[in-house]
């Protein structure tokens, strides 16, 4: 069992209570891990021995800037070409197993914690050459080009990136940033946020950035608009722009989530 939560599918028995923690509102959505069963998975064009849970997509009243998938590839499966849509950038973050990534003709092996930024226009594919399943998050966004700047693909691992402590928190709240926030080549970030037990977001953040949050480890109370919601590893949260958010991580262990946000672009009005 790895350190990051990955869904395993299955189907609850007929005796299982129907009540769950799923919430859908105009301001936010919570998709709890308990509803990610076999019957809500989707096949992906070009992939073999693969299934996916699509947990965010552009749709009225939901995500507007991105899509997010949890992808599971069985032994021998994958896709020689994964991205078919022109102008789309992506991020892969591996939560279980190992997968071979061929990126613009170069081979990389991604294991748990592996992170790849896949620039728009890059050629890439995946192959599971191991004897076990591999699970990863795949976040996709239409790249908004900015004259004089161009985002470049790269591959790394979480363990090779030093987290940055948020100001005046004594390390109780840290962010692992895989790209520099000041780099205007990037119009989005996919980071990892870590709270130590007792760590908090001490005010209701209210901002223009849309968020997707997948809980990798632990549990916490999360403020979504006017509601305090208890979330745990395996849960996904979507927050629309300007939805107030805060967090209290009560422990006993670390609370960590994968965070998507759009950034570094002017608001289009025409």
From TrEMBL:
It is an enzyme of class 3 (hydrolase). GO terms for molecular function: allantoicase activity; ureidoglycine aminohydrolase activity. Its EC number is 3.5.3.26, 3.5.3.4. Residues 70-139, 192-258 form the Cupin type-2 domain. Keywords: Hydrolase. Pfam families: Cupin_2 (PF07883). This is Bifunctional allantoicase/(S)-ureidoglycine aminohydrolase. It comes from Pseudarthrobacter quantipunctorum.
């Amino acid at each position: 069992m790895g350190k990051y939560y990955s869904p395993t599918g299955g189907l609850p028995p007929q005796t299982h209570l129907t009540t769950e923690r799923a919430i859908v509102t105009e301001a936010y959505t919570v998709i709890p891990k308990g509803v990610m069963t076999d019957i809500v998975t989707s096949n992906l064009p070009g992939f073999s021995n693969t299934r996916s849970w699509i947990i965010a997509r552009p749709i009225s009243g939901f995500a507007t800037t991105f899509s997010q998938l949890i992808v599971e590839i069985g032994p021998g499966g994958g896709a020689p070409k994964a991205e078919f849509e022109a102008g789309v950038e992506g991020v892969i973050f591996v939560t279980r197993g190992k997968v071979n990534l061929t990126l613009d003709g170069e081979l990389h092996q991604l294991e748990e914690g592996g992170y790849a930024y896949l620039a728009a226009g890059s050629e890439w594919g995946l192959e599971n050459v191991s004897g076990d399943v591999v699970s990863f998050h795949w976040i996709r966004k239409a790249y908004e080009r900015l004259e004089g700047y161009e985002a470049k693909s790269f591959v790394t691992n979480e363990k090779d990136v030093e987290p940055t402590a948020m100001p005046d928190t004594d390390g109780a709240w840290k962010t692992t940033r895989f790209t520099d926030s000041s780099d205007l080549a990037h119009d989005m970030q996919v980071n990892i946020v870590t709270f130590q037990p007792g760590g908090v977001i001490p005010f209701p953040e209210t901002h223009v950035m849309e968020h997707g949050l997948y809980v990798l480890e632990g549990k916490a109370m999360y403020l979504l608009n006017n509601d305090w919601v208890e979330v745990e590893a395996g849960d996904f949260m979507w927050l629309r722009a300007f939805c107030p958010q805060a967090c209290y991580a009560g422990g006993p262990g670390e609370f960590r989530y994968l965070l998507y946000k759009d950034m570094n672009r002017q608001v289009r009005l025409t």
